Amino acid sequence: MMLRDLGAAECAGRLRDGRLRLRTGPFVMQLQSPVAEVAAGVSLLYADYPVPEPAEFADFSLQVMRSGGLRRWIKPQARFFYDGQPVFEPMALDHAYPLLEWSMNWCVASQAHQYLLLHAAVIERNGLAVILPAPPGSGKSTLCAGLIHAGWRLVSDEMALVERDGSGRIWPLCRPVSLKNRSIDVMRAWAPQAVFNRVTVNTTKGNVTHMQAPAAHVARMHEPAVARWVVFPRWQQGSAPVLSPRSRAASVIELARNAFNYAQLGEQGFHRLVDLVRGCDCHDFRYASLDDAVKVFDRLAAEAA
Predict the structure, then answer these.
(1) What span, in angstroms and rounded, lies between the C-alpha atoms of 109 and 87?
(2) Distance in angstroms (rounded) separating the CA atoms of residues 149 and 192
(3) In whole angstroms, what is the distance from residue 11 CA to residue 36 CA?
(4) Could you report the per-residue pLDDT of 243-270, keeping only the tens digit for each?
(5) Shortest CA distance to 157 belongs to which of 216, 240, 115, 101?
(6) How far, in Å, are 20, 169, 233, 289 from residue 102 at the CA level?
(7) How remote is the C-alpha of 193 from its chain's centroid?
(8) Is-above-0.90 flag for pTM?
(9) Which residue, 57, 110, 59, is CA-closest to 87?
(10) What are phi and psi of 171, to 5 degrees?
(11) Beta-carbon contacts of residue 158 (< 8 Å; ≥ 6 apart)
(12) Long-range contacts, 97-100 (Cβ 8 Å, 24+)
């Protein structure tokens, strides 16, 4: 059963009671929230996702709840709980939906150590993956969102789940794409057919929204891809598209900085990172327009075919 088969009212009811489970890539999330904006966002953005039965095992149990006390009436807030324990500081109630998405990311980043976890977007074509690691503000999510509406498959917008067997396989964490500030208008113009959630203003990351993952990509979220390229993107106003080689050694160091659990994995984390990069061509990429970026990435795919 897919979430859209439940209907909005049943989805909201299961969310309110903590009976809603969603499969997102290799994980089942048990979600609970009485907040109407959360129900509306989940119903819109996860319509094409499988819904396990309420009794099925869930990897993560998380709640986005209203704060109690006087806060119920004065500046109401939302708070994230994991297994019943509070995590993060409370946020304005209007920020509840992005808080849910950030909470889901936190669950994976802090718990899923069966993978080497890199803070990076991942896209795929012909079974080969491009890893796009970058700090916030680099244009990573905009580039990822643009490419998945130009023939590339979304593997993940936020996190690369790298298999720890040295194979270079990356498992999809195919969820809505997070967009911020100017990226929102850029993507609305680039992909007018895409589905966007309402914009939440003045969060800690500015104005944010989430773009629905294409249904065909969600249907393939059980298919891994093999890492073939590591590309460090940087959006720069007015820049021509420049794809320049980057050494594997420098790439390993930068990827380690972008890994959530590199330290926890110890020596094995180092070897898995080296194995991953050894099988990839590594580049820096500077760009100003998505049209230029699509041509560059399509050329990469054609040369590998």
Answers:
(1) 14
(2) 10
(3) 11
(4) 999 999 999 999 999 999 999 999 999 9
(5) 101
(6) 18, 25, 22, 28
(7) 20
(8) yes
(9) 110
(10) -90, 140
(11) 105, 119, 121, 173, 175, 178
(12) 97/35, 97/37, 97/38, 97/40, 97/41, 97/197, 97/198, 97/200, 97/210, 98/178, 98/200, 98/203, 98/205, 98/208, 98/210, 99/64, 100/31, 100/33, 100/38, 100/41, 100/42, 100/62, 100/64
In this prediction, residues 30-46 reach a mean pLDDT of 97
Token pair belonging to 257: 């900085």
Q: What's the length of the chain?
A: 305
pLDDT value for 137: 75
End-to-end, the C-alpha distance of the chain in Å comes to 36
Distance in angstroms (rounded) separating the CA atoms of residues 67 and 62? 15
Q: At what angle do helices 182-190 and 140-148 cross, to 10 degrees?
A: 10
Mean pLDDT of 72-83: 89
Question: Which pLDDT tens digit goes with each residue over 216-228?
Answer: 999 999 999 999 9
